[in-house]
Design goal:
This protein folds into 2 domains: 120 residues, no CATH class; 219 residues, Beta Barrel (Lipocalin). It is mainly beta. Strand 6 and strand 7 form a beta hairpin. The chain has a 12-stranded antiparallel barrel with strand order 11-12-13-14-15-16-17-18-19-20-21-22.
């Protein structure tokens, strides 16, 4: 491959590459027309008619526009395909169905033309190129309240989350618990005792369509619920996605098994429809909201609703303050039980890793 100094690049204007007319402008004002071949290791390669393959430092690129679709790999291992625009620190990929995905330059890890992408995939299949490592992230939420004296009270909330992203697939887990009691006159009364957990696995079919499978488990002493086990799956659609804002809808089916302390059991088939919204207006604050509705397919008119949201304020790279609201509603509670369970917590969050936690259950919020 031929390598030219940046001083020689202006000559390429007089001899543009045939066919495609991708354009490149450097910080010093030099411009190149040709075919973008690849961005790898911080160096951008472009094919010009006169000089052949020309390389430039990625940091020296002021603007870039591709005439034909390219394959863009992001730092979180997502892959996008479409025409690419870069202007300063902003970037965007316009997909084949005219969806504009807003990015930042720092989020772009690699760019490949169709030919280079085919060669890359062939090398991966033959074991000659590395497959991106899985990116893990985890977080622990916690809050504790204690009093002593004439009345002794304890309230403990603990939330644990983990997520793994690799290429087009994502795996996420969550666990949250709340326990509270008080002691007065030597008598101890438990006022809250609930545990919720689950996992979700997703695969991107395209830039907009994904499939998923999930499992949720729940225990709630004051609902008389020893275990609710829900297993299901379905498909979803990314309605829009930018570096600060994402909104997705999904639907599918599930199996629900409930075991109560009284010995009563019930099983039912359910459908599931819902939405997820992630919003990050700046590097300090973020918000996630998720709503899932489970209509009962065995008993018309019966349904369940799960709602989870979290607001997060970063204090530094690993410590944040979180406020979480989690609501569970069932239209057919046991006799004498209320249909609603509301969980509100606030406290610190400790984050480990650099992956994407996403939004699958109580407290899941932070997206990178």
């Amino acid at each position: 491959m031929k390598r030219l100094t940046l001083a020689a690049l202006p000559l390429c204007l007089a001899f543009p590459a045939s066919g495609r007319t991708d354009t490149l402008e450097l910080e010093n004002g030099d411009r190149v027309s040709g075919t973008i071949l690849e961005l790898d290791g911080g160096r951008l390669e472009i094919e010009a008619d006169l000089f052949g393959a020309v390389t430039a430092e990625w940091g020296a690129v002021r603007e870039l526009r591709t005439d034909a679709p390219v394959y863009v790999t992001l730092t979180d291992d997502r892959d996008l395909t479409g025409t690419l625009e870069v202007a300063g620190e902003s970037a965007a990929v316009i997909t084949s169905d005219a969806v504009r995905v807003e990015l930042t330059r720092a989020e772009i890890a690699a760019i490949r033309s169709e030919v280079r992408q085919a060669a890359f995939l062939e090398a991966v299949a033959e074991g000659g190129a590395p497959v991106p490592d899985a990116s893990w992230a985890s977080a622990v939420d916690g809050s504790l309240s204690l009093t002593s004296g004439n009345a002794a009270t304890r309230s403990l909330h603990l939330g644990i989350q983990a997520a793994r992203t690799r290429g087009r697939d994502r795996m996420r887990f969550y666990l949250t618990s709340l326990f509270a009691n008080n002691s007065t006159g030597g008598a101890t009364l438990t006022t809250a005792n609930a545990v919720r957990g689950g996992g979700r696995y997703e695969i991107d079919i395209s830039d907009r369509v994904f499939t998923f499978g999930f499992s949720d488990l729940e225990f709630d002493r004051f609902q008389g619920l020893d275990l609710r086990l829900v297993i299901g799956g379905g498909a979803g659609l990314n309605l829009f996605e930018t570096s600060t804002n994402t909104f997705r809808v999904f639907g599918g089916g599930s199996s629900n098994q409930e075991f109560f302390a009284s010995g009563f059991r019930r099983r039912s088939a359910e459908s599931v429809v819902g939405e997820e919204w992630n919003y990050r207006p700046n590097d300090v604050t973020s918000f996630t909201e998720r709503l899932a509705v489970y209509p009962n397919l065995n008993d018309a008119g019966e349904y369940r609703v799960n709602f989870d949201s979290t607001a997060l304020a970063r204090l530094n790279d690993w410590l944040s303050w979180q406020v979480t609201l989690s609501h569970r509603y069932t239209s057919r509670p046991l006799p004498g039980k209320r249909p609603n369970d509301l969980l509100f917590t606030t406290g610190i969050r400790i984050t480990l890793g650099d992956g994407n936690l996403g939004a699958i259950g109580p407290g899941n919020i932070d997206f990178q």
